[in-house]
Amino acid sequence: MTLQPLTPVNCAGLLQPGFSLLQLDGEVLLFGQKGWPKRSCPTGVFGVRFKCGEMKLKAISFSNDSCYLPPLRCPAVCRLDPYDGLPESYLIHGGRTPNNEISSSLYMLTTDSRGCNRKLTLCCKERELVGEVPGARYGHTMSIVQSRGKTACVLFGGRSYMPSGERTTESWNSVVDCPPQVFLFDLEFGCSSAHTLPELSDGQAFHLALAREDCVYFLGGHSLTSDSRPPRLFRLRVELLQGSPLLSCEILETGISISSAIITRTGPTHRYIILGGYQSDSQKRMECSTVIVNEKGIQFEPLQSLKWTPDITHSRTWFGSSAGDGRVLLAVPTEGKPSQVDMHFFYQVSFQTEGEAREEEGTQGCSQESTDYDNSTPLEDSEELYFGREPHELEDSDDGEDDNYKEDDEDDESQTGYWIKCCLGCQLDPNTWEPYYSTELHRPAMIFCSRGEGGHWVHAQCMELSETLLLRLSQGNKRYFCLDHGGLFSLHTCLFQMCFLKLFM
């Protein structure tokens, strides 16, 4: 076991709590942050490279037929190994955007192709569910079960906003535990069903889920109702019968009091390592545990503790994700260190043996894949979506520019929020926003004005637009063009060159 400090090369601002790491076609991908507003990487999926104590990010292309994948933090992420001729893929459900909007969508992320320069292209498709569909949530889990030659997906737990009928001005952004229901849906037809089990009496979020064949183990988690982390461990068994599925649940006595932990798989067998997490609001769980899931059940074994650095030991919070093959990317805040430019310290934790590490290093050294993260395809200034575009197809391209992430290309979220800008006199706080128009169901209406360098966003409320006009602008499209471009009205003295109204938050 090793703990290696990492130096983020112009990318520290992209790794925030709630991010996810995915492993597709031999690459580690960062997911959960917005794309570069000045470049054609709006989906916020980046390739991650660790080498010589440095961490670099590189933009990932999407195929032309891909849908938009919003930046989602704390979603349920489930890996699908190749089966029945289908490629390896990831299912992504729910999650929370950087602007506190909670999603209920389900996406499937797969590898589309490898170019002649070995550049990875992904494909993202939104999958529709029918029947008893799980609502918007985050902090939940999703697992794959196999029974009687069939495959299904199990979704459980999480948090969401209070029901709309119960929300008040004071509790508008308050979250609650989702009801303790188990959702089961098949991947072929998208049929979803909800199941209530007496053993699952309380909601829980930020727990762990480990699946093997027809069983899923739910471990730990935090309950808002009791504000506790009870050492819970449930075994859910799913039998995919010809008619309706049969679900049964058993309470086990070997649980761990933990929430928001990181779990990484070691080897091809069902052997895992649990790292990080919290035992209470003020106490991190500093121990590591090995978890083995086999035909006999689940076993926990204590693991020799890592020699933590003082920054990790004394930090109040930490977060991270599995980088695959017994590796974890770990981050802790730079609390009380004004000399530090970055907000977080980053570490790579490896549970590989020395032989495995050497073998992996040798494999990487013989690879024909391009690992040059310093000279690559230029990207364009745009907030529009461009999938699978070639450099010569982009306007104003600069061949001397690379597609590595640079923090100078990012907007300052502390000032602008997630794609939120407005006039200087704006009194609207997007984090405590309340609907002003009945058309604003989930986020405030905004319009983009091109006046000034780079343009700026203006809230419809600040513009004193009538709701009738908002309804007229919104008919038939989610992009709302300013009618002044056709000569119908004027807002101050702004010239709108491409004005469109979007719903945000």
Spans of at least 5 consecutive residues whose pLDDT stays below 50 are 37-41, 357-401, 411-419, 476-505
Q: Would you tell me the overall average pLDDT?
A: 75
| Total beta strand runs | 34
The total of helices stands at: 5
Rounded to an integer in angstroms, the radius of gyration calculated over CA atoms is 24 Å
Shape annotation:
globular
Which sheet architecture does the biggest sheet show?
Answer: 8 strands, mixed
Structural class: mainly beta
Percent in helix:
under 10%
The percent range for strand residues is: 35-45%
Quaternary structure annotation: single chain
Largest sheet strand order: 2-3-4-5-1-30-29-28
Distance, first to last CA: 42 Å
Topology record:
Layout: E1 2-8, E2 20-24, E3 27-31, E4 45-51, E5 54-59, E6 61-62, E7 76-80, E8 89-93, E9 106-114, E10 120-127, E11 130-131, E12 141-147, E13 150-156, E14 159-161, E15 175-177, E16 181-186, E17 191-196, E18 208-212, E19 215-219, E20 233-239, E21 246-251, E22 262-265, E23 271-275, E24 278-280, E25 283-284, E26 288-294, E27 297-303, H1 310-314, E28 319-324, E29 327-333, E30 344-350, H2 354-366, H3 413-416, E31 445-449, E32 456-459, H4 460-463, H5 467-474, E33 480-481, E34 500-503
Parallel strand pairs: 1-5, 6-10, 11-17
Antiparallel strand pairs: 1-30, 2-3, 3-4, 4-5, 7-8, 8-9, 9-10, 12-13, 13-16, 14-15, 16-17, 18-19, 19-20, 20-21, 22-23, 23-26, 24-25, 26-27, 28-29, 29-30, 31-32, 31-34, 33-34
Keywords: Chromatin regulator, DNA recombination, Metal-binding, Nucleus, Zinc, Zinc-finger
Family: Belongs to the RAG2 family.
GO molecular function: double-stranded DNA endonuclease activity; sequence-specific DNA binding; zinc ion binding
